[in-house]
Amino acid sequence: MKRAIALGGGGARGLAHIGVLKVLEEDGIKFDCIAGTSMGAIIGALYAIDQNAAKLEKTLKEYFFNVMFSKLNMQKMQDETQVSSARSLIRKAREFVKYGSPDSGNSFLSHSMLEEMVNSLLPDIDITDTKIPFICVATDITNGKEKSFSKGPLRKIVLASASIPGVFPPVNIDDIWYTDGAHVNVTPVSAAKLLGADFIIASDVKSKLKTLDALPANSKDIMNRCNFIANYLFYEVLIKEANIVIEPNIKQISWSEFNKFNLMVSEGEKAARAQLLNIRKEINKFNAPVAKCKRFLKHFLKINCLKAAIY
After folding, report:
1. Which residues are known catalytic residues?
2. What letters, b where the CB count within 10 A reaches 16 and e where it falls short, cover 229-260?
3. Phi/psi at 268 (nearest 5 deg)?
């Protein structure tokens, strides 16, 4: 059995992956490979390098509170007297993503902040040099297709996967432009399969589909709502390929609320602990002789059907 964990995108909600990894590591559950999208790519890459969830938590906590927050003034979110200022920053970013700006180029922020973060956290190595095989998902904006990177410069690949469109500019890799992988595969279960994984645990931190109390106020909001519904249903189909799905209770958290670091890690821990019994049960079932036999026959028939089709 080749185990993998798929860490999804969700901005600050992705910090819950840290809690998930801590609990699984404490329980002795190890992985043969890791797949990541967006924030899940940053966390997945760090874990693939060191395989140490406690170190991962310490590193990210120090970075977000000492560097990133000071540069974006996100500490203001913690100061009740200046909440309106923080909300104004977030509102401007969201408005840019929705409507764009003729004077602002192709992004609300430059790559410098995100690139500095990625370069500070990750070594300058090829993605193939991580201790645990790692695959990272980005969106090819030239053809609209998913790109799963399993070779190439780690920093640049993770940067591409985490570049929220409109907020950060696209990243050029081998003359192709890439942006946030969450738009094609928010929780990259299928990417983990490309590395040969046959038992996959997914940590799902995407936005949830909320029931509306009233009709959206205007045509743009209605279109955005319908687009979100279509994307959400598509992602729900993709994630069914996972053997286990861990869903931290953080649907109310915004993608930008990095100041809720401790809460997100804690919710990740709670969600993972709640699934431990089920994970052990599914692993035992997967390793049962009957299940192994079924997988062998399925693989045998698939290979022979393929040969028949070729010849």
Report:
1. 38, 180
2. eebeeebeebbeebbbbbbbebeebbbbbbbb
3. -65, -40
Beta bridge partners of 33: 4
- Burial environment of residue 115 by CB neighbours within 10 A (0 to 12, 13 to 18, 19 or more): middle
Give the whole-angstrom CA distance, residue 39 versus residue 205: 10
- The residue whose two tokens read 């299928």 is 190
Residue of 188, 195, 196 whose CA lies nearest to 241:
188
Give me the pLDDT at residue 281, please.
Answer: 94
User: What pLDDT score was predicted for residue 308?
Assistant: 54
Averaged pLDDT, 232-246:
85
Query: How close are the terminal C-alpha atoms of the chain, in Å?
Result: 31
Output the pTM of the full model.
0.81
| Residue 96: per-residue pLDDT | 44
C-alpha to C-alpha distance for 203 and 245, rounded to whole angstroms? 6
- Given pLDDT bands bounded at 50, 70 and 90, which one contains residue 221? confident
**How many of the other CB atoms lie within 10 Å of CB of 276?**
16
Averaged confidence pLDDT in the chain: 82
